[in-house]
Design a protein that fits this description.
23% of the residues are buried. It is flat and about 65 Å long. Strands 1-2 form a two-stranded antiparallel ribbon. The N terminus is likely disordered. It is mostly helical. Helices cover 67% and strands 2% of the residues. Strand 1 and strand 2 form a beta hairpin.
Amino acid sequence: MNRDFSAGVLDELSSFAEEGKAQEVAPQIKVAWTAGYLLLTVSFGRYDWIGTFVFAVIPYFFAAVTGVGIGRLVRNVARALPFVCCAGIGELFLDRASIALWNAPDGWRISGGVIAFAVLLAKTFGTVGAVMLLTANLSFAGLADALVRLGIPCILVLQIQLLCRYLDLAVSQFSRMMQAYHLRNPRCRRIPVKDFGMLAGQLFLRTNERAEGIYAAMQCRLFHAGRGLSRGRAGTMREWLGAGMLFLVLAAGRWWL
């Protein structure tokens, strides 16, 4: 049988996550450092192309260091580019400012829309790549434990866990429905619009029924929403110092660039 449709970007990265060398670092340090990197990356202005390009390379450098495949990481990040292009393509036509490269008055000048669009793409490669790298080096259970140890309310972490679980369940049911539909209509390449309502209703009913069965099984295992969640391994002082020094280097680079 074909691989289930729900095995998307996260499952593809998780398939080789165990090979990474960053597995020994505490989960909350990975989450905190990634959040700091995201804040520094998005803080660049729309015309700060030098600093943005430099920061966009950082996740792929760590991907090489931790043993994560850079090629697969780039391919997964590229899946977000169509949405970014649709959101930023207007910059090429609306922003007609003339910007001097290298901040030199007599240097080359280029359209501000081109620079703004390139900066947006670089930020996408940097931020999405950092999130994908975090996913490749951290399981979802480890992410939940890290959020709890970082002070995120347990009820919010539980909602995130259930949401991701039920989204995966809905995608799985959708894949089965599409497979059954094409088996009954082998000559049909595209689903007619008139069948969308029927399929959406069946998807809702099947997903709701399956979700109720899963929740009943959780209750049979003494699940209680008010109970505190497990906390991940606490990071050592050496790990925190190393992550802090590395973040200070990035912060200094952000200030200098």
